[in-house]
Amino acid sequence: MHSDRASIGLRLSATAGLLFLHLPILVVFLYAFTTEEKSYAFPPPGLTTQWFAVAWNRADIWPPLYLSLWVASVSTLLALILGTLVSAAMVQSRFFGRDQISLLILLPIALPGVITGMSLRSAFSIMDIPFSTLTIILGHATFCIVIVYNNAVARFRRLSGGILEASADLGANSFQTFRHVLLPNLGSALLAGGMLAFALSFDEVIVTTFTAGQQSTLPIWMLQELVRPRERPVTNVVAIVVFLATFFPILIAYYLTRDGAETAGSGK
Amino acid sequence: MIPAAAPAILAERGLADRLTAIFWRRPRLLLGILLAPPLIWLGLVYLGSLAALLLQSFYSIDEFSGVVKQEFTLKTYAELFRAQNLDIIIRTLLMSAAVTLGCAIIAFPIAYYAARFAKGRWKAVFYLGVMLPLWSSYLVKVYAWKLILAKEGIITWAADALHLSMVLNAVLSIPGIGGNSLSTSWIGTFLVFVYIWLPYMILPMQAALERVPNSMLEASADLGASRSQTFRTVVFPLALPGIIAGSIFTFSLTMGDYIIPQIVGTSARFIGLAVYQLQGTAGNIPLAAAFAVVPIVIMLLYLTVAKRMGAFDAL
């Protein structure tokens, strides 16, 4: 029989599924306050806020944090420029090789990170390029392009071609149209794409381990702590920082684009 | 007096107008200018790197000096078929298949409810409820599971509190997939993989389910089908492309991951971990590259089959 109400079983399993997706993150928050630093004992023997101060005073956390912020900012900027350009070209016209180009944009994120990472590593090794901040940015910008592209292309499709023609009819040249018509219309989609690209880059670890030399970004620092833990709650404090640094951009991106048929982040 | 009629075509006002006129006459030029920077970037950085990967995989390493010999050879690929390397590949494939199945089972109720029953505010709740875990920090999520699965962690505590320790110990003593604690067993690795890639399965599944027209479900009910008959003969076949689309992600992502097996699980290696260790500590870039080609080949085969089954229409 068909009815408009979900069965109890379906409702329970859907709710359980959503809880399964969300509850584990809370554990990270809880363990940042535990007094036990040698193990992951549950329930925590006591609660304290001292680890936030300890983390603040640990000198080895700040350089990775700055590096991550710098890498994410530069990669986002590069991705914004390249992603907008390619989306403008893809929307405007149909041309030979169009499908191949859209596949090319998608590949860096469709193939597993270890392949992107290993490819870049092979290329740097063949060309004798030393690892540096630049090599990290090269990798990050490459997989961030698709994020900006997805958001911009969705907005371009919604934009009626009429307003660009109207602008031209009213005597604006291409640059004026871009500045006064296109940019204000694309603005929030680009901002959303930029936010998501920032979140993705700030948190990326797989490609980064292949393209970073001695420097560590915050996720690499975290990975080292996961493999060889010391002062475990400090890792939790950093995890909270990383979580929030990606959480808010995602939320903002959602609210920036939720009115449209397209919503930011439907594909990562 | 009426001034002389203004010319229908405005005079050019400088370089910007001149360029606009050129773009108008030659749309291909504008297209080229727009496409050049991103294509040069992706072509050089990405395709160049993939080519480098392929090139490296045809080199070999000198067993005595450890230096990479830059001559074409298939020796490195032949090494993939050594028992220990073949083990890694098979283990990775089995884990990817298990994770894909696990994701599909857990994802279905969520996707089905979100697609068919959630309205208005709940729709947004479901959307954000899947989107936030999808985008939030990968490492933080993996770390959360290390805390949960630890021997002294929540699961052990909950099992004690509910007097289910026997069950937990029985599960852990299953030969092959059990272990000392959840965080050092295959079950742990599997759970974390399922958790991390679950949203990638939910989204395409939900998209496919949303396209199942209500009228078909009604027709099925009118023709006397029970709920489970409708599900088996109408809903499931129509959702299948979405499930396959989701499985592309879960399969490919599990196959390429090397962080999760390193942090949660036994020390047995997966393809990703093998690539990482070979290029790093072992310094054997050719073999690492050959290993990295394996997921590419498998995914190409997978995509060909998926395309036949119409999975791309569901993306």
UniProtKB/TrEMBL annotation, chain A:
<dbReference type="GO" id="GO:0055085">
    <property type="term" value="P:transmembrane transport"/>
</dbReference>
<feature type="transmembrane region" description="Helical">
    <location>
        <begin position="103"/>
        <end position="123"/>
    </location>
</feature>
<feature type="transmembrane region" description="Helical">
    <location>
        <begin position="67"/>
        <end position="91"/>
    </location>
</feature>
<dbReference type="Pfam" id="PF00528">
    <property type="entry name" value="BPD_transp_1"/>
</dbReference>
<dbReference type="GO" id="GO:0005886">
    <property type="term" value="C:plasma membrane"/>
</dbReference>
<keyword id="KW-1003">Cell membrane</keyword>
<dbReference type="InterPro" id="IPR051789">
    <property type="entry name" value="Bact_Polyamine_Transport"/>
</dbReference>
<feature type="domain" description="ABC transmembrane type-1">
    <location>
        <begin position="65"/>
        <end position="253"/>
    </location>
</feature>
<feature type="transmembrane region" description="Helical">
    <location>
        <begin position="237"/>
        <end position="256"/>
    </location>
</feature>
<comment type="similarity">
    <text>Belongs to the binding-protein-dependent transport system permease family. CysTW subfamily.</text>
</comment>
<keyword id="KW-0472">Membrane</keyword>
<protein>
    <submittedName>
        <fullName>ABC transporter permease</fullName>
    </submittedName>
</protein>
<keyword id="KW-0813">Transport</keyword>
<keyword id="KW-0812">Transmembrane</keyword>
<keyword id="KW-1133">Transmembrane helix</keyword>
<feature type="transmembrane region" description="Helical">
    <location>
        <begin position="12"/>
        <end position="33"/>
    </location>
</feature>
<dbReference type="InterPro" id="IPR035906">
    <property type="entry name" value="MetI-like_sf"/>
</dbReference>
<feature type="transmembrane region" description="Helical">
    <location>
        <begin position="129"/>
        <end position="149"/>
    </location>
</feature>
<dbReference type="InterPro" id="IPR000515">
    <property type="entry name" value="MetI-like"/>
</dbReference>
Automatic annotation (TrEMBL), chain B:
<dbReference type="GO" id="GO:0055085">
    <property type="term" value="P:transmembrane transport"/>
</dbReference>
<keyword id="KW-1133">Transmembrane helix</keyword>
<feature type="domain" description="ABC transmembrane type-1">
    <location>
        <begin position="89"/>
        <end position="306"/>
    </location>
</feature>
<dbReference type="InterPro" id="IPR000515">
    <property type="entry name" value="MetI-like"/>
</dbReference>
<keyword id="KW-0812">Transmembrane</keyword>
<feature type="transmembrane region" description="Helical">
    <location>
        <begin position="88"/>
        <end position="113"/>
    </location>
</feature>
<protein>
    <submittedName>
        <fullName>ABC transporter permease</fullName>
    </submittedName>
</protein>
<dbReference type="InterPro" id="IPR035906">
    <property type="entry name" value="MetI-like_sf"/>
</dbReference>
<keyword id="KW-1003">Cell membrane</keyword>
<feature type="transmembrane region" description="Helical">
    <location>
        <begin position="125"/>
        <end position="148"/>
    </location>
</feature>
<feature type="transmembrane region" description="Helical">
    <location>
        <begin position="29"/>
        <end position="55"/>
    </location>
</feature>
<feature type="transmembrane region" description="Helical">
    <location>
        <begin position="285"/>
        <end position="305"/>
    </location>
</feature>
<feature type="transmembrane region" description="Helical">
    <location>
        <begin position="229"/>
        <end position="251"/>
    </location>
</feature>
<feature type="transmembrane region" description="Helical">
    <location>
        <begin position="154"/>
        <end position="174"/>
    </location>
</feature>
<keyword id="KW-0813">Transport</keyword>
<dbReference type="GO" id="GO:0005886">
    <property type="term" value="C:plasma membrane"/>
</dbReference>
<feature type="transmembrane region" description="Helical">
    <location>
        <begin position="186"/>
        <end position="209"/>
    </location>
</feature>
<keyword id="KW-0472">Membrane</keyword>
<comment type="similarity">
    <text>Belongs to the binding-protein-dependent transport system permease family. CysTW subfamily.</text>
</comment>
<dbReference type="Pfam" id="PF00528">
    <property type="entry name" value="BPD_transp_1"/>
</dbReference>
